Structure formats: C-alpha cells, structure tokens
From TrEMBL:
Key words, A-Z: Repeat, Transit peptide
Gene: LOC123411413
Protein's name according to its UniProt entry: PROP1-like PPR domain-containing protein
Gene3D superfamilies named in the record: Tetratricopeptide repeat domain (1.25.40.10)
PANTHER family for the chain: MITOCHONDRIAL GROUP I INTRON SPLICING FACTOR CCM1-RELATED, PENTATRICOPEPTIDE REPEAT-CONTAINING PROTEIN PET309, MITOCHONDRIAL
Tagged with keyword Transcription: no
GO molecular function terms listed in the Swiss-Prot or TrEMBL record: mRNA binding
Length: 634
C-alpha cells in the first residue's frame, strides 16, 4: 500500500480501452452551446410551472401512481393520453417512475426517449430515468450519452454524473467488478472534466467505496490522494478504505490512513469511529478499540445505536460473547434501545458456540423489550436449537415464524434439515427438503452439503452420490464442505479410490480448495486401507499446497505407525523439520505439542529450532502491537 505521505501519480487508474467510441459524442462533451432546459433547484410546486388550471391535481395523481407498489400500465397510459399539452414537465418523472415498476418497465424508457412534448425532458426526468430504468449497469453510460445526443438542449449536471456513478458502482445485480470499475473511472476522469465540471466529495466517495469493496485497496488509496489534491476532502471517502484495510487485518495501514485523514483537516465522523471500532475488535485489538472510544469522548462524539452495534458485532466476531452481552445491557442503561441488528450477532454468537440456553435468554429479553424478530434472528435461533439436537423447540419456533408472516429462507430450511439428520431422523429431514423445494427455495452449495453429509452419515452413500450428480446437473458448484462430505461417504463405504478421484477432480476444477479437514478425511481412508505410501504422498501434497497439519492429522498417522519402535517419533520429527523449512513455525509448534502429549520428546536441536522461530515472531509482533496501541490512544 502506498504511504499516505508519499506523492502518487494522479489519474493513474484510467484503463486503456474506452467504453464508448463515437466522434460525435467526443465533440458533444466539449461543446459549450448546450443549455439546461430546467434547473435542479426549481421548486416543483411553483405557480409558474402550472399554467393549466388542473395541473396541481394532475401532479398529485402522477405522484400517487409513482408511489403505487405495482401500478397498472393501462392506468398510467390512460392518464398520459388525457394530459393537456401545457401540462407541467414535473409530471413526467413520476410517470416514468410508475412505468418502471409496472409489468412493462421498457415503456418507461420509451416515454423518456419519445416524450409527448420537448418540455417534458428536464433534469428531473433525466435523473429519474437514471435511477429507475431496468438497464444493466454497463449499459447505463451508453443510455446516458445517447440521451444527451438525442436532446441537445439538455446538459448534464454534476448530480446527473453522480447518479450515474452510483447506479454503476452499487447495482444489486451480479457485477463484473473490472468492467464496472473501468466505466466508473472513465466517467470520473474523462466525462466529468469534459463537461467542465469539478468532481465533489460525493463523486469521489462513490468510486472510492466501489474500489474498496472490490478489494482494490491500493487503487482506492491512490484515488483518496487524488481527491485531497483536488480539494474535496470528505470522511465518506476514507471510511470504506479504512473498513477494507481492517477486513484484510491491515491495522498498520489503517492507522497510517487515519493519521493522514486528520493531517489533511478531515474530521472523523461518527461513522468513521464505528468502522474503526468494529474493525479493530474483529482484528482482536481490544486495547486499540478502547483508545478509539476515549478519542470519541475527548472529541465529544456521542455514541449512537450504530456505534454500540459495531462494538457488539466486533466483540462477537473475536469470540468475546459475554462482553458483547454486557455492552448490550449497558446500552439500555444509557437510554439506547437495542434493536434487532444489535441482538442478532449476540444470539447468533451464542448459538454457534453451543450456548443455546444463553441465546434463549437473550431472545426472551429482546421480545420483552418489544423488538420484533426478523428472518435473520429466527434462522439463527432455529439453527442454534438444531445444532444442539433440540428439534422440538426448533419446530415450535419454525411454526411461530410462519404465523408471524416471516417467510423461511434457504438458511432456515438448511438448519432444520441438519438438525433432523443430527438426531437420526433422516425421513423427516428429507420431508423438510421436499417442503423447501415446494416453497420455491433453490438449494445452494451449503444446503446440498448438509444433505450429502447427512445421507453419508446414515450410510446412504448411493443416495448421496445421486444428490451430488443432481447438484452438478443444476449448475451449482460444490464447495469444500460438499466435497469433504462426499469424500467421507465414499471412504466410509470402502471406495477410497473413488474418494481420491473426487479429490483430484476438486483440484482440477478449481471450484474449491481442500482444507485440513478434507485432507484428514482422505488420509484416514487411505491409512485404514493400509495404503501408507499414498498417504505419505498426500501429506507431502498437503504441505506443498500450504495447508498445515493439525492434531487430527498427527493422531491419524500415529494410529497406524508403531510408536513403540520409534517410528512415530521419526515421522513427527520429520514433519516438524519440513514445516520449519517452510517457515511455518506455528504449525511446527502444534506438532511438537502433540509429541509432548504422547510423551514423545523431540531432539534438542529440533525443539530449539521451533522455540526460536515461535518466540522471535511473537516478540516482534508484540512490540509492533504495542506501538500501534500507543498511536491509536493519541
């Protein structure tokens, strides 16, 4: 990451291939002869905009149509045909909005491109079209510039460009980050200056946030520097970059950027502190998070419900569930009512840690406080009951959820299926699966994994293989858990070669990467089949792929190796040496702990090698952490 104080080349993010190539459009961008047909600042109810006597009434009807959840096409078109020729131009943006939500949304596009009068094309209708047209994001710029060519009297404002960038960068459809970010950068660096407009903080914040969300943190930092040079300094642009850095556990980079932010006179907002608190807690930096809280107090930034929510979620993510619950209780004492977004991580955390009784207590407190559970809370609580085998309580809560008009989703059904398989009721699990399909829920990789794992655990490997083929046939790429479940079922059925072929298929397809659990399942199958040479080859492959062995790996090999004759010690010492040579000291230390637990004392040279590697690393990081804790405090 570039240093916040080092100079960066501006405009370096512009990609080479253009996203539009028309000479007429290029001449259009640099023309000074265009004037706006209306101003964005005009009050929509001004008397001069309504020369016809019935115009205010017509506007109210148009507004009612635009606010309708599913307006009728015939009603909108009938109203449009009855409009007088001198109707207000501010009626048409509402009609465009109504048609865009109708069963025929392309009529909205047709109304904008072929308006009944030239006065109907205003900045308001243009901006409304950008926000509401059902066009793919990569086609929006083409529509944008086509509209400018079609209506020569319409000149875009900075608001129009900001709306275009917002639609391109934050579309809810599946995105090709490279394509959309290329478009956004072209708009920022070429189109906006071409119209002699100056990007503001909203322009930069939109693109910076998109870059950070796409994982291009270095490019986002470079654009923040460009923003500062252009004189548009805003905390809204720094916040997404800080969040991305902390998600990547780059606490050092986040601290530098935070210092740079203050150096340039940008005052941190409450949202900035929320990002820092949440990110630092997730990274396990509780002392640094407390330093941020003290800074908030000194700068008289009042914590909000969002602040407490960020703290609670961060504490849960770093495993401090009891502290998270104490913060939730502290909120009520300070006059802040916890909402469902504050209770959700606490309940989810207790359920995942197996403390379902504590989760039930939090649930009762939440309901007594008047907070209505949402789909996330219901699903989390049902999953907690299912993981503990309390399917009776899970069924009751599922029925309560349906009665509360909260529609179960794929995660809710998946939890129920897992729970029934866990208590050995495979028929009821399959019944829930069929109910899920009939409800219109499409299974995903997680759901398929649960079904495959459940069938394999009850000895129905052939049925699991049928489900596997069904999953592949429907274009659902299996994840690591699905592969592991299927490999485990094949190995348990004595088909170790089939499991090994499936493992190699996983590596070849690249759909998922094997983890230590997947390797352990296959190693166990090979060793039970007395195939030690292939097991050793697989262990070497595991190390080459960067996957560290754990206690289960060591115990699996020790089970098949004669420990009494020294072969177990020889194997484990060789494993420690291979890990140390690969600079994976933590994994080597775990193997040494396994040796000591088995009363196998490693040689002094090997023990010294591991101790030096672990202690040196810990000492360095301890000093670094202490330095950054001091920086956050001040």
């Amino acid at each position: 990451m570039p240093s916040p104080t080092s100079p960066l080349p501006l405009r370096r993010l512009i990609p080479n291939p253009p996203f539009y190539a028309a000479a007429a459009a290029a001449r259009l961008f640099h023309s000074d002869s265009f004037v706006s047909s209306s101003s964005d600042d005009e009050p929509p109810l001004a008397d001069e905009l309504f020369p016809a006597a019935g115009a205010p009434t017509l506007l109210s009807v148009a507004r009612s149509l635009s606010h309708s959840p599913s307006p009728s096409v015939s009603s909108v078109l009938g109203f449009l045909h009855r409009l007088p020729t001198d109707a207000s131009p501010h009626i048409f943006p509402h009609l465009i909005a109504a048609l865009s939500r109708s069963p025929r949304p392309l009529l909205a596009l047709r109304l904008f491109l072929r308006p009944p009068t030239s006065a109907a094309t205003t900045h308001h209708s243009f901006n409304s079209a950008l926000l509401r047209f059902p066009l793919p994001p990569h086609l929006l710029p083409a529509f944008f510039f086509h509209s400018l060519r079609r209506f020569p009297r319409l000149a875009p404002t900075l608001l129009s460009f900001n709306l275009l960038l917002k639609c391109v960068c934050f579309s809810l459809v599946p995105r090709n980050h490279r394509l959309y970010l290329e478009i956004a950068l072209r708009v920022l660096h070429e189109s906006i200056p071409g119209w002699k407009l100056q990007p503001d903080k909203f322009t930069y914040s939109t693109v910076v946030s998109a870059l950070a969300d796409a994982g291009r943190v270095d490019d986002a930092v470079a654009l923040v520097h460009e923003m500062v040079v252009d004189g548009a300094v805003a905390a809204e642009a720094f916040n997404p970059v800080l969040s991305a850095m902390l998600r990547a556990r780059d606490v050092t980079g986040a601290a530098k950027l935070f210092s740079f932010m203050q150096l340039k006179g940008c005052k941190p907002s409450a949202a900035t502190y929320n990002v820092l608190l949440h990110g630092l807690l997730v990274c396990g930096r509780a002392s640094a998070a407390m330093g941020v809280m003290r800074r908030m107090e000194r700068e008289e930034v009042t914590p909000s419900v969002l602040t407490y929510g960020a703290i609670v979620d961060g504490l849960v993510r770093c495993g401090k569930l009891q502290d998270a619950w104490k913060v939730t209780e502290e909120m009520a004492k300070k006059g802040f009512a916890p909402n469902e977004f504050v209770f959700s991580p606490v309940i989810t955390g207790f359920c995942k840690s197996g403390e379902v009784d504590r989760a039930s207590t939090v649930w009762d407190t939440m309901v007594a406080g008047g907070v209505r559970p949402n789909i996330v809370l219901y699903s989390a609580m049902i999953d907690g009951f299912a993981r503990c085998g309390k399917m009776t309580k899970a069924e009751l809560l599922f029925e309560e959820m349906v009665e509360a008009k909260c529609v179960p989703n794929i995660m809710t059904y998946s939890s129920m299926v897992r729970g029934y398989f866990q208590i050995g009721d495979s028929s009821q699990a399959l019944s829930i699966w069929e109910e899920m399909l009939s409800a219109g829920c499409t299974p995903n990789a997680v759901t398929y994994s649960i079904l495959i794992s459940g069938l394999c655990n009850v000895g129905r490997s052939k049925d699991a293989m049928m489900v596997w083929k069904h999953m592949l046939g429907h274009g659902c790429a299996p994840d690591t858990i699905a592969y592991t479940s299927m490999i485990k079922g094949l190995c348990a059925s004595g088909m170790v070669d089939g499991g090994l072929r499936l493992f190699n298929d996983m590596l070849a397809r690249g759909d998922a990467d094997p983890d230590v659990i997947c390797y352990n399942v296959l190693l166990d199958g090979l060793l039970r089949a007395k195939d030690l040479p292939r097991a050793m080859d697989l262990l070497n492959q595991m190390l080459d792929h960067g996957c560290d062995p754990d206690t289960v790996t060591c115990n699996t090999f020790l089970r098949e190796i004669e420990v009494g004759q020294g072969k177990g010690r020889e194997f484990l010492e060789g494993l420690v040496l291979r890990l140390c040579n690969r600079k994976r000291n933590k994994a080597a230390a775990e193997v040494v702990m396994v040796m000591l637990a088995k009363y196998i004392v490693p040689e002094a040279a090997i023990l010294e090698m591991v101790v030096r590697g672990v202690c040196r690393q810990k000492r360095v990081w301890r000093v670094i952490d202490k330095c950054w804790d001091e920086i956050w405090r001040f």
